[in-house]
Amino acid sequence: MLIVDSVQHAKAGHAGMALGMAEVAYFLYRHAMRYNPTSPKWFNRDRFVLSAGHGCLLQYVCLHLARFQSVQHGIMSSRFLCYTTGPLGQGVANAVGLALAEANLGARFNKPDVAVVDHRTYCIMGDGCSIEGISNEAASLAAHWKLHKLTLIYDDNHNTIDGSTDLALSEDISARFEALGWNTITVDNSQGNLEAFKNALISAHSETGKPTFIRVKTTIGKLSRKEGTSKAHHGTFDDDDVKLMKQKVKWDDTEAFHVIPMVYREMQAQADLGGRMEQEWHSKLYYYQNKYPEEAAEFKFLLADGMLPGWECSLPKWSMSDPVDSTRGYSGKCLNELAKVLPGLIGGSADLASSNQAYLHNLGDFKQPNSPWGRNIRYGVREHAMAGISNGLPLHSGGLIPFAATFLVLSDYMKNSIRLSTLSHAGVLYIFTHDSVGIGEDGPTHQPIEHLAGLRAIPHLLLFRPADGKETAGAYKVAIENRNVPSLLALSRQKVAGNVEGTLADAVGKGGYIVSDNSEKELPEIILIGSGSELCLCEASANVLSKEGRRVRVVSLVCWRLFNRQTRDYKELVLPSSVSKRVSVEAGSPLG
Amino acid sequence: MLIVDSVQHAKAGHAGMALGMAEVAYFLYRHAMRYNPTSPKWFNRDRFVLSAGHGCLLQYVCLHLARFQSVQHGIMSSRFLCYTTGPLGQGVANAVGLALAEANLGARFNKPDVAVVDHRTYCIMGDGCSIEGISNEAASLAAHWKLHKLTLIYDDNHNTIDGSTDLALSEDISARFEALGWNTITVDNSQGNLEAFKNALISAHSETGKPTFIRVKTTIGKLSRKEGTSKAHHGTFDDDDVKLMKQKVKWDDTEAFHVIPMVYREMQAQADLGGRMEQEWHSKLYYYQNKYPEEAAEFKFLLADGMLPGWECSLPKWSMSDPVDSTRGYSGKCLNELAKVLPGLIGGSADLASSNQAYLHNLGDFKQPNSPWGRNIRYGVREHAMAGISNGLPLHSGGLIPFAATFLVLSDYMKNSIRLSTLSHAGVLYIFTHDSVGIGEDGPTHQPIEHLAGLRAIPHLLLFRPADGKETAGAYKVAIENRNVPSLLALSRQKVAGNVEGTLADAVGKGGYIVSDNSEKELPEIILIGSGSELCLCEASANVLSKEGRRVRVVSLVCWRLFNRQTRDYKELVLPSSVSKRVSVEAGSPLG
């Protein structure tokens, strides 16, 4: 009835799924999940993802009943929500990311005598989530990695917005998950009998080699006159329908938002259990620290922000005398040096590890037989799931710094997930190589000439297009310092002309800066503005113009967003408004 | 050996897949597929899609052996290729689109006594294609629609770029396709025995309710020293490896690009068969025309460009006195009027048909029991497959005009396919509603404030953001007139202020034009430039400024790309360069 009252109060919302899954969600919060409402960020808590994010009312109501303090009725927000789902399927990938983080950290830190990382991940998905491509990709990986502590609960209510799922769905979803390698269980909860669901969870918990898929047959909009139809998907109820629903469950209290005190008491029991478990976990951690001080120190870094003081000193320093390389080549060297001092750096490529030069040498492949603790993640050709999974990692542990690599052109496959990184403050590091036409023989399908514009338009994302080794190292530094937002490195396949005399790693944080200027005390006549592999073209052109007696300035615009954030004075200093002869050079769309 | 010679000559290419699948592809072109090299665009030919597009050498070689005239060795291009695949998984969706077109047109035009639409669609995919989310979405739909004339051939060579598929793949792909509803067959072709493959095709051809998935176990880079390893995926061979390969198959001819004359003769037999079948088809068509003249006339329109003269007159005409509506509402009315005069207009939404107002009333749902001929396609929550399938439709028949609808924010899920629409000249009509912050209660995950910028940067795509009914109708007209490129309509959820006095349907083709100006014979002091739901804000502001005695012009910039294509004089007329006070108003990213 809290769900009903909330949707009536807000005059909007998606009560249908919330009503259909109310009993299941209550069971999870009351009996299954381990959490502590007075310590909501407790590291070893179970994680919960509502992939069918439109049903968030359900989660708010559960959080309220469990007395998470900041949840407010009808206002539909909670600071205990860590991530944004909504675009369907994303949450499934996020949940795989959370379970991956648990498995990876467990393999790295647990000892035969003490497990400091040991929790489950639950995810609720709907029909839409189940048929989106990203969820199939992510589910395939979850089984490949044997993430047995992951439980995916499928709200099988047989309705989507446009009508019955019969309109567009005839596959056997359970059989598909079985084919992917999951333990699958079907539960009929349309009559509200939770015994079968309880048994399904027991089976899930006893599974040690597979993630578990629980298909729960439910009734959308249960109790209401719209029940079982797509009309219940979203929107409010008629007043007399509300009255009828309350009668059906003998809800004689007429006051809205009423909660029977016993429900709070019931939920309190689970909260108390969570509190005791957190205490136990702290005792374990104490024991761990004494017995394994070195591992404990690293583990604590990962629970905080993952930064060892002075980490940035490990970044390579390049000069003009160094051999020339591609910026993907410089990037690979930065990444490998950083991996030595940042224990949370973990990630991989969608089957292009060597092309992207995004492989951590000697740090193992996650879940391969000899390296369950490996920090290289082999995503296979699954760009979208890679991005969705990456979003789950920093949200699991503040110190995890995920990187996700592919060709820039394939960022299209991941775009919604990249967007959600910014909305969820997931500090993913996107390493996108082959960033323009200089990609070799693959042709237009693989030439990302328009992608920089689209990615630069995503609010908050920091997009770096470094020109050489120095700027690449600088971009890594700024990216890792700014982990409340994702960063994206657009990198060349081809060798750049070498390190440019005037570039500076430390200037990357300004977004744009003067690389060279022969104007001495005067203002330049011409400003050449370049980024990435085209900055050296600007330098070469400036040299020619300089010989012709022109006053020329070259500006590197390595990150537009950071340059925009500088003071008016600084921007005027770099790009004086009185100099109107400006040429921008970038091998891509001029948009912007 | 043509494959080997080609990759050596071009010093690049992906010979591994081509060698592993050479026998299968040869069998398809020699024995299975119906085509006529002297009439390559014959309507009733079988369609072939190489989803693993990097292996295009294989296709070029087959086209050469079949004597399609414009194929040239080593130059790797052919004007007989209709679409661009490459980004993995796309081709599977394209093939489903081709098979859908065949099934839809067959249901609409075939008669009990004569089938004028009757061909098969073949698609080869690799490991990468098989695990990309888009292929699972598309395969799910193919089975739902019972596209039994579609045969998907899976090149199971157990290798991707990064190494063995064991790195990232442990699902049972055949079982997954079975769960999706496919007829599945496994063939071991690693020893070059084509008998089993032949039997698989016979089984596929006898299947009447399901598409068929043939898993062919092959050896990547067969014959070469790299065979069976990921090293064979791409790149050239050592010269002595080439020598060894030629010895292995007793290829004593030393000249590169040698073809044994018998091979041409063998292939010629199939070409001759295709020629005879085309003749038979023309006879059928003649009979059909005599017996069913009305249907034949419509069918012929669909084989050409699908345009009935005067079609544009059916577009609604709005004026200021009409009731206000959202632009999605105006769009829905245009779409339904157009559907009456454009028999090729066919499409659907990814489970948002009513939200998008993209439903053709009284024209049935494709493949629902009562309407196999339906022109509404129910894609379910599968945006990416919707876009990939839509690309297949206009490439099947010039007169098919597909529309694909969802929320603008979810264009992210389809971005790569949209990009491929432009590269393949597939005139898809993208109908994207809820185009900015005015979307109701859904919040930031569903507010596409950055998407216009990214989409406008895609070369060739025509993006329209109409302000009212008149401009919406104008946008439809221009979009349908320009079907060599895709068009995108960005439409509001909320009602706009009404039809604006100065807007003109006929001006949309210019991309930008003057809506109002109170300057009389002088130049304006200020130009307000708006698009979509913000144009009326510009008009309202202009009224205020006008009352204050200012000379103000309002410009509608409904399609940036078309405006950019106008003459310098016209652009100067609309936006005089001497008027530097310009305000652009669009509820989205200012990028651009």
TrEMBL record, chains A, B:
Pfam families: Transket_pyr, Transketolase_C_1, Transketolase_N. GO terms for biological process: pentose-phosphate shunt. Its EC number is 2.2.1.1. Its cofactor is thiamine diphosphate; Mg(2+); Co(2+). It catalyses: D-sedoheptulose 7-phosphate + D-glyceraldehyde 3-phosphate = aldehydo-D-ribose 5-phosphate + D-xylulose 5-phosphate. Coiled coil: none annotated. Keywords: Magnesium, Metal-binding, Thiamine pyrophosphate, Transferase. This is transketolase. GO terms for molecular function: metal ion binding; transketolase activity. SMART domains: Transket_pyr. One of its GO terms (cellular component) is cytosol. Residues 325-499 form the Transketolase-like pyrimidine-binding domain. Belongs to the transketolase family. InterPro entries: THDP-binding (IPR029061), Transketo_C/PFOR_II (IPR009014), Transketolase-like_C_2 (IPR055152), Transketolase-like_Pyr-bd (IPR005475), Transketolase_BS (IPR020826), Transketolase_fam (IPR033247), Transketolase_N (IPR005474). It comes from the Eukaryota.
